[in-house]
Write a structure and sequence with these properties.
Layout (H helix, E strand, L loop, with lengths): L1 H7 L16 H4 L3 H25 L14 E4 L6 E5 L3 E2 L9 H11 L11 H12 L10 H11 L6 H17 L2 H11 L6 E2 L1 H9 L8 H9 L4 H4 L5 H17 L5 H6 L18 H13 L7 H6 L3 E4 L3 H15 L14 E8 L6 E5 L18 E2 L5 H10 L7 E3 L4 E2 L9 E2 L9 E3 H6 L3 H11 L1 H11 L17 E2 L1 H12 L3 E2 L5 E5 L5 E4 L5 E2 L3 H17 L3 H4 L7 E6 L5 E8 L2 E9 L30 H13 L3 H4 L41 E3 L9 H10 L3 E7 L9 E5 L5 E3 L3 E7 L47
Parallel strand pairs: 1-5, 3-4, 22-25
Antiparallel strand pairs: 1-2, 5-15, 6-7, 6-20, 8-13, 9-12, 10-11, 14-17, 15-16, 18-19, 19-20, 21-24, 23-25
Helix pairs in contact: 4-10, 4-12, 6-7, 6-8, 10-12, 16-24, 17-19, 17-20, 17-22, 20-21
Length: about 800
Amino acid sequence: MTSAGSAGTRKRKFFDYPRSGYTGLHRWLPSWRFMLGSFLSGVFLIAGAIVAAYATIEIPDPGADVDAQTTTVYYADGSTVLGTFAVQKRKIVELETLPAWVGDSVIAAEDRTFEDNRGISLTGMARAFFNNVRGGETQGGSTLTQQYVERYYVDKTTTDYVGKFKEVLLAVKITNKESKPEILERYLNTIYFGRDSYGIQAAARSYFDVDAKDLTISQAAMLAAIIPSPNNWDPAVRPQQAEARWKIVIGRMLEDGHITKKQHDEAVFPETVEYVRSSKYQGPNGHLLKMVEDEMAGEAINISKEKLDRGGYKVVTTIQKPVQDQLVTSVNRLLNGELTDGVTPPNPRLKIAASSVDPATGGIVALYGGPDFLADQINWATYGYGMQAGSTFKPFALIAALQEGISLEKRYSGRSPMELDGWGDGDKTVTNFNGSSYGTMDLVDATADSVNTVYAQLNLEIGADKTAAVANAAGITTPVESNPANVLGTTPVHPLDMASAYATFAAQGVHHDAHVVAQVVNPNGSVNYETDGNPERRFEQDVMADATYAMTQVVERGSGEPYIKPLGVPVAGKTGTSNENLSAWFVGYTPTIATSVALSQVGEDGKSPNTITPFGPSPYGGTLTQVTGGSIPAKLWADYMGPVLQMEQFAKKRDFPPRADVGDKPTQRPTTTPSPTPTPTTAPTTEPTQDATAKVPYRLQGKTQGDATAALLAVGLEPVIVTKPSDDVAAGRVISVDPAAGTRLPVGSQVTLVVSSGPKPQPTKKPDPKPDPEPDPKPTQTPAPTEAPPAQEEEGGGDGGGA
């Protein structure tokens, strides 16, 4: 009793552990009261921590790329895709634009309780936790909302438990803040579906080539089915697994009431389209996309590369796909030897540049800067300072002369070589191509035959600065030298600039800025930018009409005739070859399109200019000994433009305005000027009246000698008869007239009539054919313009040495 009483009065310890009054195992086991209290305390502490964490956690800003959308670049038709710019292939769509089964299929596949849960699934998380703890295959217990949080806000895959806990809190908080439709819409626009596609719209395009709004039940179910592992379950990779997953989703949609039994039974596993991986800059079109990228970042549009990649713009270019395809086809035909009958294929270092411009807008209709942007980033149509233009530069001097009141009928000596005062500080000698020499000739003939000595005199007469000014006004963006030799193409230019300049001629003197971007549309459908090319009249129409007439003669009877004239379409143009054959050109235009073709060749270093290695047949027979503008460039131009000029948009208008005869009453100037001064210091004080001059009548060729003589005497001109054998013109009829028809001369001037004396005497022995025939040399006397064979090529750049 005493012992027990003593124990009852003993003072209890604050922390009674090990437990007093107990022995053995019970001494070391906590009481149930302690266990319950500890458990409840822990629960309250954890709950408090969760509540505190929930209260303090803030919803972060969306990830950097969730609002990024693919910018799509289209051909000129506005519907055919040329390429894309993106950090992620994505196009955001609104949920209300989609069929109900698109969202329902994702709910059935990923979170069947989505409509009712609070953003999380405790049973799903517990199941995944215990499975992972047991060492089973890793599972996720995430709801659709949790996946949305991870992709839309966290912007990375979370694997640690702390991160998952934060996602749980965010999912609950976002569920209380955002509506279920809003969550579902953002989820559909964010989730990755494989095939480099983010969001339902990009996925619909990648797998089925349709818009998301047009997805069928089967297609939507398949896309939803592969969400957990899109790259592995892509039907193109594992069709059986994809179909098995699809059946599960279709079955759930029926069970959950999203579709009817009839819709379920009619559903068939859908076929997908072939997946073509993005090769944005590959091939010739890579140069076009780089031009779009550069133009978008320019001052006029001011959309940087970063904005372009994320902005979701619709960019409509000026490139017409049928024309671009034909250009690439023709270039490939040349490179493959199809245009040259396999004769001596081109040097592998040959560079081809071509571009076509719409005269009405300045839009670049087609452009070839190289075969593959990824292999060679140099766009040879726009690169650096370009290449020497050769005689394609002569029309700028012709226009400058017409602006000064110099008529196409003005005559100059075409002899070669010619010493010209004012030509330069060193050698003052100018020669024609191949040393050909001519008599006096007007500017039409000089243009057709591209006579260097005539154009050298003309440039000295008007002033080289005026030629440079015309070139810049027409569209040349590279610096133009103001030395007399610029008329022979010493200035390096871009092939695109030459097409733009000749497009100004085609537009009768109205210049449009060359451009590749026609319109930019924002994601919301509003227009961000569009252009009409900023039209501005640079030259008068009558000047353009005369310049165009002279340039048509290049095709009708000059160096462009062999390949361009057979097209049967009126074409004005100019061939060009630089010194040492470093470049060769043909630039031509109709009223609806202007096109430049330029060839060059680089050395072993891939940069330094080299003489173009001759290849292919000559237009005059035999094999080419040198590549000139009238040979391969003209042939490529014709092969490309032949089909293009038959297209409706380019065939609607073909005729040029009639010749205007600018300067029909020119001031009296010497008809032969061997050594002119650079610019006349004084103008003649007298101008003959119309009655003091007479025009050489038209259509004298083919007339009898008597009729032609009478026609000349009737207008006050004195005929001089020269006979010449001819196999084509009957005896006694006129072969040619010099000066040419339309030439205005002082009354009483002599006009030479070359009259046929009948067929040439037949040789007794036929001479052996030459292995590489060349065109007949031009006569040193005044030529008969329509009788002399066309020169193989005509021009020289550099110092005007006749190369």
